[in-house]
Specification:
Blueprint lengths: L7 H6 L34 H10 L3 H16 L7 H7 L10 H13 L2 H15 L2 E4 L2 E4 L9 H4 L3 H7 L3 H9 L7 H17 L14 H19 L8 H15 L8 H17 L7 H16 L11 H20 L5 H17 L20 H10 L17 E6 L2 E6 L19 E5 L2 E4 L11 H7 L7 E3 L7 E2 L3 E2 L5 E6 L3 E8 L7 E10 L20 E9 L5 E7 L5 E3 L5 H4 L10 E3 L5 E5 L2 E7 L5 E9 L7 E11 L3 E7 L6
Antiparallel strand pairs: 1-2, 3-4, 4-5, 5-6, 7-14, 8-9, 10-11, 11-12, 12-13, 13-21, 14-20, 15-17, 16-19, 17-18, 18-21, 19-20
Length: 668
């Protein structure tokens, strides 16, 4: 990733070697894989130990106990003269009975809810998996006829790559791509052979098994994918259900029931619960207790993980879609086998309401916090699936102080989203970014101001940048992070956002960083619609349209050391072009900023924002003569980077930066 788009202060903030998460944190590794640090990086940047200490101090007792237990298992289990793999095998019934009808009916609902593009992608991915070609994080390994699980090339990827490989996504892609097994015997036999080979070569209890093929998150996904595949096969006359895969699914569920990820929680716990329910429904002729366990986990997660507005507490739209999909699946399966669904279904309906108000006009999710496209199903497809499972969205107020903090202000054909919420839960900072008081913008159904997304979860400079204030449409004081970050997932001492005004057409909020031994400052931002009355900040869908206001006024003030400066940045979508009058080199050159390349005049008419040759809006900065136009990275999918326009305005601390966004051509 090029540093050309960063100021010198920003470049200093991105260390060459970013540290790894503490032991037991998600994505951590016993070995250095795919650019992830080996842990010694914690010593390489000042302040990283403090960030680690804050992260650990906020963790719950069950998390710390779980990390300790995992480390003990890794140290002890492989050395014991006990065949744990064989012990699990003995607990599998000789001839396990299956009842696949509810899972098959649920699969049909899910498949029918997907767009044709999603189904075509699923078919392509299934064929590639059958050919031994796997692409995750935009990185491909071609194995050929057999997956070599010890291949060094796997360990050269981020650990997330191996975990996705071990989840056997190809099975789910196959059943989502085609209604019937007809004509797919070769694809099926190859995928089954890959799974059987893995089963023979990946025993429970091998070295680092809980970080490799037997990571409970991967186990959960395997169970869901295999259960759907078994039900799909059973639904076709003349298609033999593979007995070995049935036994493997049962054994994986036995393992998962003993390794529920209480120590991680979050979306992992919800995946565990959904997998146990699916396995319990598939094997409901056996007295497993898995359905009851999964339902209780989802009830508890519903109380602990969902906010007052229905949003998931990790504040990632991608993970919100993921967990909502699991709640819908669980509700449908529980209903099919006569179990109570009220508690689980209510959570799903509130989460549906939140997603319906947050989804973009295109049916996609905004890339807030750790979010990318193409990982979860589309927001529109997820909502259709929920409705197919007899769920109805319940929209709750976005203005509740215990909500996610997303407000929208509508003007004409445009909608601006203003983030006045805190970052994710203190005990689970994994997917949180320094996006406090950030904004996003859609005009006429097109995104204008966009968030950054995430490249991967490795402890590397891209990860540090994606989580930084510099990557978001907000203000940054003197190149400092409001909340220090380290490794892949750690966060230091937190700031809190205070909403000072919420008046429908005007919202004002602030957050402050207070430090005894370091810089302290306060950032205040207000956003208001401009023009005639009739705006709405009620939380309608981005781009859903209001009526008459012609744009928005954003006012930033950052106070701190009078000798310091702060920078307000606006990152545009890659499909947008920003045009303005360049500042002449001779006029702009100074000792402080000798290179004027990229400087534009703010002017009274502002800068044009165009897409496909059409003018969408303009942006200007009253009281600011010059702005810097550069490029910044955009990570729309795992492993993919694009450049897009970015405007930066730097002012002394205490001064205001005023931004006028207009969608009325006559206003300029």
């Amino acid at each position: 990733m090029s540093d050309s788009f960063r100021t010198p202060a920003e470049r200093r903030e991105v260390a060459d070697d970013a540290p790894a998460p503490p032991a037991g944190d998600r994505g951590g590794s016993d070995r250095n894989r795919g650019g992830e640090d080996d842990g010694r990086g914690l010593l390489r940047r000042p302040g990283d130990w403090s960030v680690a200490a804050h992260t650990i101090s906020n963790m719950k007792a069950v998390q710390l106990a779980g990390i300790l237990e995992r480390r003990l298992r890794h140290a002890v289990v492989p050395r014991l003269p006990i065949d744990f793999d064989e012990r699990y095998d003995r607990r599998v019934p000789d001839d396990p009975s299956i009842a696949p009808a509810p899972i098959r009916a649920n699969l049909d609902r899910l498949r029918a809810s997907l767009s044709e593009a999603e189904r075509a992608d699923a078919r392509e991915a299934a064929k590639e998996a059958a050919d031994g070609r796997y692409t995750f994080l935009d990185r491909t390994i071609a194995f050929g006829d057999r997956i070599d699980w010890e291949r060094e090339e796997i360990d050269e990827q981020p650990i997330f790559w191996r975990l996705k490989l071990a989840s056997f996504e190809g099975f789910e892609r196959l059943v989502l791509g085609w209604e019937s097994t007809t004509g797919l015997d070769e694809v099926r036999s190859r995928l089954e052979a890959e799974a059987f080979d893995w089963d023979a070569s990946s025993p429970i209890g091998e070295a680092a098994y809980l970080r490799r093929s037997w990571t409970p998150h991967s186990v959960s996904l395997r169970i869901l994918h295999w259960a759907r595949y078994i039900a799909w096969c059973d639904g076709d006359d003349g298609t033999e259900v593979p007995d070995r895969l049935v036994r493997m699914t049962y054994r994986n569920a036995l393992f998962l029931a003993n390794h529920v990820e209480h120590e991680i929680g979050g979306n992992h716990l919800i995946e565990n619960a959904a997998a146990l329910i699916a396995a319990g429904v598939l094997f409901r002729d056996h007295d497993t207790g898995w359905v009851r366990t999964g339902r209780e986990l989802l009830k508890r997660a519903g109380n602990e993980q969902f906010l007052a507005d229905g949003g998931h507490f990790e504040r990632s739209p991608m993970y919100h879609v993921t967990v909502l999909r699991r709640y819908a699946t669980a509700t449908d399966l529980l209903s099919a086998v006569g179990h109570p669904t009220t508690a689980v279904g209510t959570v799903a309906e509130h989460a549906m309401g939140f997603l319906s108000s947050l989804a973009e006009p295109s049916g996609e999710i905004p890339l807030l916090n750790d979010s990318v496209r193409g990982e979860a199903i589309r927001a529109r497809s997820c909502l259709a699936y929920c409705r197919a499972c007899s769920l109805t969205p319940t929209v709750r107020s976005r203005h509740h102080p215990a909500g996610s903090g997303y407000r929208t202000l509508t003007a004409g054909d445009g909608t601006l989203l203003f983030d006045v919420g805190d970052v994710g839960p203190p005990h689970l900072p994994a997917h949180s970014h320094n996006d406090q008081l950030g904004v996003l913008l859609w005009v006429d159904g097109r995104q204008v101001l966009a968030d950054t997304g995430v490249y991967d979860y490795g402890a590397n400079p891209r990860r540090q940048y994606a989580r930084s204030a510099a990557a978001h449409n907000t203000a940054q004081y003197d190149g400092i992070e409001p909340i220090p970050t380290a490794g892949s997932y750690m966060l230091g001492k937190r700031t809190s956002v205070a909403v000072e005004a919420d008046e429908g057409d005007r919202i004002a909020a602030s957050h402050a960083r207070r430090s005894l031994g370091g810089p302290s400052y306060e950032h205040r931002r207000s956003v208001a619609t401009r023009g005639a009355s009739g705006s709405s900040a009620s939380g309608g869908a981005p781009g859903s349209g209001g009526a008459t206001p012609s744009g928005w006024r954003i006012v930033d003030r950052v106070t701190g050391d009078p000798d310091a400066t702060y920078t307000v940045r606006y990152h545009f979508h890659p499909g947008v072009e920003v045009r303005g009058e360049p500042v002449a080199r001779a006029e702009a050159a100074t000792d402080a900023e000798p290179d004027p390349d990229g400087e534009l005049r703010s002017g009274t008419d502002g800068l044009d924002i165009r897409a496909d040759g059409d003018r969408l809006a303009s942006i200007r900065f009253p009281g600011t003569e010059r702005v810097r136009l550069a490029e910044s990275p955009y990570f729309p999918r795992y492993g993919r980077e694009r450049l897009r326009p970015m405007i930066a305005v730097t002012k002394p601390a205490g001064d205001e930066v005023r931004t006028i966004l207009s969608i009325d051509p006559e206003e300029g």
